[in-house]
Amino acid sequence: MNRIRGKTAIVTGATAGIGEACARALAGMGVRVVLTGRRSDRLEALAREIAHTSEMEPVTAVFDVRDRSAVRDFVARLEREGVVPDILINNAGLARGLHTVQEGSYEDWDEMIDTNIKGLLNMMRTILPGMIERDSGHVVNLGSIAGYVVYPQGAVYCATKYGVRAINQGANIDLLGTRVRMSSIDPGMVETEFSLVRFRGDEDRARTVYEGVDPLKAGDIADAVCYVLNTPPHVNVQQLLIMPTVQRSPYAMDRRAVGAEKE
Ligand code: NDP
Ligand code: 8X3
């Protein structure tokens, strides 16, 4: 049963990885998608592809989730154009570097905290009031295993994801008495551009993260997002931790060479 056909979903961070996969999967289920991110060329290419494959015209909006006035302008534009968001996929996020706290970079800290926590809040703050007024809607936040377990040199990124888990729990309590639902999808390792961004374009270093393992794919997370959104209105999946079979914790990874058995 498809309960989300005909709904409208905003996807932040739709230019790559999990957000892009969610946009494709949702469009495939007949959801009108509002694609957002900072790289307009990628947004336009994805919008063209979706328009072609789903015969639905996506809305695109280029903005930085850290920029509060840009977020407000975006929501005002949706209102002007009569686009009513039923779903928000609060996905935009990133890690920068791996450093001890004593050697960390202030700029990296600001970027992670401002994007992963404050950017996520900026979206909630502007979208939730309308959902509450309509007494309908579903917000899906992208948390992480990093919101449950801290790993070496990852204190600040992990802190942002602990923050996402706390906000998801707190906002759920605040939404009691409404029919607005909120879920956190919390993946382990997913092979996307995440590590390339974390290591500022160092492809060799990014590649080693996924070497010898069979990580999650962005589409696996999009499947989970679609499942959570498609549950009946009386069901609220508050959090969903999804790990690759080869990774039971950030500290427990089976790094036997993938494909070695085929040689
Ligand atoms: P990608 O780097 O592939 O995609 C990240 C997306 O976030 C891009 O579309 C990027 O778009 C967008 N983004 C980043 N900063 C901003 C900003 N300031 N304003 C607007 N958009 C922004 O990474 P993933 O797809 O892997 O990551 C998506 C989410 O999943 C993140 O929240 C991440 O923390 C989380 N996650 C990832 C895991 C992984 O192993 N990959 C595991 C667990 C959670 P653009 O640069 O065009 O703005
Ligand atoms: C991304 C997964 O393990 O690199 O949230 O923190 S991890």
Please, could you describe this protein's structure?
The chain is an alpha/beta fold and 263 residues long. The protein has one domain (8-248): Rossmann fold, CATH 3.40.50. Helices cover 43% and strands 17% of the residues. The protein contains eight helices and eleven strands. The protein has helices spanning 17-28, 40-54, 68-80, 106-134, 155-174, 194-198, 203-209, 218-229; strands spanning 8-11, 32-37, 59-62, 87-90, 137-142, 180-187, 190-191, 216-217, 239-242, 247-249, 252-253. The strands form three sheets. It has a seven-stranded parallel β-sheet with strand order 3-2-1-4-5-6-9, with helices on both faces. Strands 7-8 form a two-stranded parallel ribbon. The protein has a two-stranded antiparallel ribbon with strand order 10-11. Helix 2 (40-54) links the parallel strand 2 (32-37) and strand 3. The longest helix has 29 residues, at 106-134. The mean pLDDT is 97. NADPH dihydro-nicotinamide-adenine-dinucleotide phosphate is lined by residues 12-13, 15-19, 37-39, 64-66, 91-94, 115, 119, 142, 144, 187, 189-190, 192-194, 197.
Outline the fold blueprint.
Blueprint: E1 8-11, H1 17-28, E2 32-37, H2 40-54, E3 59-62, H3 68-80, E4 87-90, H4 106-134, E5 137-142, H5 155-174, E6 180-187, E7 190-191, H6 194-198, H7 203-209, E8 216-217, H8 218-229, E9 239-242, E10 247-249, E11 252-253
Parallel strand pairs: 1-2, 1-4, 2-3, 4-5, 5-6, 6-9, 7-8
Antiparallel strand pairs: 10-11
The structure holds NADPH dihydro-nicotinamide-adenine-dinucleotide phosphate and 2-hydroxyethylsulfonic acid.
